[in-house]
Records
---
Amino acid sequence: MQFFAEKMHHQKMEFCDYIEALEEERKKIQVFNKELPLSLELVTQGFLFFVCVEFDDSAIIACKQQLSGTMAEYNLNDQLECSEQTSTEEGPVFEEFMPIKKRSSPDYDDGDDDEEQHSHKILKDSTKSDWLRSVQLWNPDPPSTNEDVPRKASIEVVKRNGGGAFQPFQRDEITNGKANNASSNDKAPSSSPQIPATSSTGPVTGENVDGSSKNEDQGQKKKRRSWSQELHKRFLHALQQLGGAELATPKQIRDLMKVDGLTNDEVKSHLQKFRLHHRRPNSIIRNNANSQAAPLFLVGNIFVQPPEYAAVATSSGELTTDTAPTGIYAPVASHPPASTHTSEASIKKLQVKQLELSEHSNSEGRANHGEGAGNSNSPDSSSSTHTTTTSPGY
DNA sequence: GGCAGAATAT
DNA sequence: CATATTCTGC
């Protein structure tokens, strides 16, 4: 008897270990949840299965309960994510998943696909999106207090704001700090409701879109604009609407962003940086051998192909961020409310640019992304092996 | 003169 | 490194 008891105990322990292992596994996989909802499910199911098989020992039961608890948690999370995604549809979604995008989805690659090197980027490749990450996570400027900003201002109060430079927007009211956002003034939102100001998206620690209060000291150095997550999101959104970083112009972007206090120069600068960080990575290993074949993940004994590979191209062959966060539920990239300009002009521009690029920048694998309009898809410059655009049903 | 983009500067 | 500012050409 004793022996038996011992044996049971042993088994129990083993089982628990197993459970733990599984749990861990699931955690790992959860990272890919967005892309591979199926995998999670499978693992989870396996989980249940094992839990339910035999043993009714109290300990096991406890385990079971615990597990179910965690499961519920996961589900809840999933749901939350989903709802968030769907509810945001406007465009924020797009940017929201940028960080994840980098690892396997052909993200919205504005003019230059740069993506497709999936195989490796899984863990590395941080190069490209690194800066993005920083931008997104950047915790906007703390309140006032810090630094000498106020001091300087007071010293050089000069305040000869005769010309008023850029926009009239909110004048001083340094105190207002946040709270504003109202921005009732400024250009009327015209048509699209646009992003309802501070979208719940994340830990936006009470920071307004326009970054901060701008003092009147115009003769002075501009206060560094911090591109908060929100701001950047808008930026991306605008970009998306305009057809990519290569097509959009600072002014357009600024208009679309509808952030008061935001100047052209600021947008220009940001855009410059954006482009910079986006173009370079392209030249790198565009695709090795089979890289183009959508990676298959082995789940259980089933191969699963991440949904991103079903990425669709937007009519104008632009961003198409989609990023299929939850795979199946992938919200289709929203279209620009004002679809007017984005069509002809931009396409033309696109073509021109592509020509230019293909001409004097042979070294850089510029990409092709014009699928939508059926226009070119330059056989990607010279990158090693053929790149048969293996696009799943478009 | 405005604007966009690149090049510098901070 | 992230922005700002300046320089250029259109």
---
Amino acid sequence: MAGFQAPAGTFDVLPPESSRYEALVARFAEHVARAGYGSAITPMFEDAGVFERLGQSTDVVRKEMYDFEDKGGRHLALRPEGTASVARAYVQRRPALPFKAWYVGPVFRYERPQAGRYRQHHQLGIEALGSDDPDLDVEVMALASGFYASLGLSQVRLRLTSLGDAACRPAYRDQLQHHLEGRRDQLCEEHRDRIEENPLRILDCKREACRAASAEAPRMVGNLCDQCQGHFARVTAGLTALGVGFDLDPSLVRGLDYYTRTTFEFTSDALEFAHSGAGGGGRYDGLVEALGGPPTPGIGFGLGIERILLTCDAEGTFPAPGLGLDVFVIDTTGGEGARDVTARLRAAGLRADRAFDQRSWKSQMKAALRSEAPLAVVLENGQTSIRTLQQKGEAECAERSAVVEHVEKKLGELR
RNA sequence: GUGGCCGUAGCUCAGCCAGGUUAGAGCGCCAGGUUGUGGCCCUGGAGGUCGGGGGUUCAAGUCCCCUCGGUCACCCCA
């Protein structure tokens, strides 16, 4: 166990599990491409200021960011989430609106690792900039919801609320603050002094003290301005029309401060509470402006790949696809035959693997069976044969020179 | 960042509480036997700085301290 290990909170994804990651990303790409989202590839690090615009009361930025100074004295940070980079790219490049993009990649947060919680995890996400049409909110949530469903997941729930906007949130905030101040000594120790900083966060506190104190507290959804209320009504009606199930959750508060209006989270009932969050997102109509761009509405979501796969495990769905080998070459005559035949099979477009190191027949046979290839080509003294592997069958002799054609024919018969 | 539990073979673990010959098992791996040259079965083999460092002791996998990593709760989130 001496030597190097992956840094705390990071991990390696090796075959066969890695094929599951790839299949998940491929499925996501296909799913959102159908709705007109193209892929955005942005840097994994940015000027730290890009993320600081996400809000100073968010832990992800305030205390969990991997920031550092580079050799040129620039203050940079590994991205702690995906939205800010896409928004920054929009401000810098100004693609035509609406701008719809998806992304995949690692994000970094300096946290205490735990099951389902890492210092580097991977997110899939989409962002749609340039429209405040509530139908776009519906599209975004429906895409996420449909993606979970396409994986065979049935225990992922969409929880939804509206956080209002610049017109109604400040007034609500004051009202909430006032309410909580009257009950300051009832709050848990942690939150007693955070009423001014972020009173909304207290609504989400799990401690009995805070829950009691905030039980009667006014809720944002009940204090929306007319426009936000209209927007939210269109959103819920749209989801219902499309058959996307959701639960209204007025206590929902998300970790990033930039959210406005529609805000949502996907949680899996199949996972432990501590890491049950499988994705989340919402509208961020002020973010582009905060990053120095023109006032531009936007909405998007980020989904945690590891959490999704944990959920798949818990629900017994979306297994890792195999390598999909067509044929495995066994050679007990020294290896030159395997070298040449394998090369010819591959050149013909087949997926072929072989054993090395002149192992025994038995060992090569075991490897062939393990490979899950349906066929084996067996090279022995003066003889070449083709065998079915998944069930015992007669070996068919073949001319060495015609082995590729023979394998192709046999594969055709098996399918 | 706070607290609890855990680190022994590639994997899953026993051994530690009451320190004492060459540290074990199952699975996996390699070789041989058996089998219709094939998944079972039988025999043998390779593989371990007992996470790392320090200490106590005649003697440490076992006791103590530190450290690294994992895990659980909190915090927070994907």
